[in-house]
Structure formats: C-alpha cells, structure tokens
Amino acid sequence: MGLPDFGKYAFYVWTSYGIAAFVMIINLVLPMLKRKEILKTLNRKLRREQSKS
Predict the structure, then answer these.
(1) What is the pLDDT of residues 35-49, one digit of tens each?
(2) DSSP-assigned states of every residue in 1-53
(3) Do the beta carbons of residue 33 and residue 39 sit within 8 Å?
(4) What's the pTM?
C-alpha cells in the first residue's frame, strides 16, 4: 500500500494535510506551554505572599 495518487491536485492535498497536522500539533503544544507559565506565576505569587506573613 503506497501513497495515494492525487494527480494534478497532489500539491494542494499534501499542503492541506501538512497545515492540518501543524494546527493539531500547535493545539497540543500551546496549552502545555501556557500551563507551565501559569504555574510559575502562581508559585511566584504564593512565595511572595508567604514571605510577607
């Protein structure tokens, strides 16, 4: 089973697949990065509040 033959539309089909894969990867990675940023900010605020007490 090889790659499907899309004929003269192959460039557009593979480009669409590539863009879709890129968007799915970004949708997985960005929330993970944002989570880390939020946790760092919360830890900083917590340490700051604890040092005041």
Answers:
(1) 999 999 999 999 999
(2) ------GGGHHHHHHHHHHHHHHHHHHHHHHHHHHHHHHHHHHHHHHHHHHH-
(3) no
(4) 0.67
Tell me: pLDDT of 2 over 90: no
- Compute CA distances 16 → 30, 33, 36, 44, 48, whole Å: 21, 26, 31, 42, 48
pLDDT at 3: 80
Question: How far is it, in rounded angstroms, from Cα 51 to Cα 15?
Answer: 54
Q: CA 30 → CA 18, 19, 24, 49, distances in Å?
A: 18, 16, 10, 29
How far apart CA 37 and CA 32 sit, in angstroms, is: 9
